[in-house]
Amino acid sequence: MNTQDKTDKRRQPYLLVFPEIGAQEVGFISVAENTGFLPFEVKRVFWTYHTPESILRGRHAHYTTEQIIVAVHGRILVTTEQADGEVQVFVLDTPGQGVYVPPNVWHTMQYSGNAVQLVLASTVFDEADYIRDVEKFKQVWK
């Protein structure tokens, strides 16, 4: 992908397919390195697990943080909403895929009971980077 395509693509959420190495009979490994495949340099990694299916997590946007969300086990429904109202739903049910979530995108996640979510983030945690009110999100980004 050329630089222009990468710049344009980073403005909205999209599905990443990680390189998959291996075979069915021996298993697989997927790799995410800061060698140009990832759309940003990873500064923080965190994971969530044992989340009840009835819980909707996320419900926020970021001013500057970019994220990649991966379901390393189970299924995660990632719903994104851009300030213009465009909504996308991504079903993550294989560890070889992830969703890129850029800044200024409201996002929520709902998990199967056995889901384990891994998140790669472009920044260290900073509460001031979060927009936790959807109306404020719409005001900031319109």
Automatic annotation (TrEMBL):
SUPFAM superfamilies: RmlC-like cupins. CDD domains: cupin_QdtA-like. Gene3D superfamilies: Jelly Rolls. Pfam families: FdtA. InterPro entries: QdtA_cupin_dom (IPR008894), RmlC-like_jellyroll (IPR014710), RmlC_Cupin_sf (IPR011051). Residues 18-140 form the Sugar 3,4-ketoisomerase QdtA cupin domain. This is WxcM-like domain-containing protein. The lineage of its organism: Bacteria, Pseudomonadati, Bacteroidota, Cytophagia, Cytophagales.
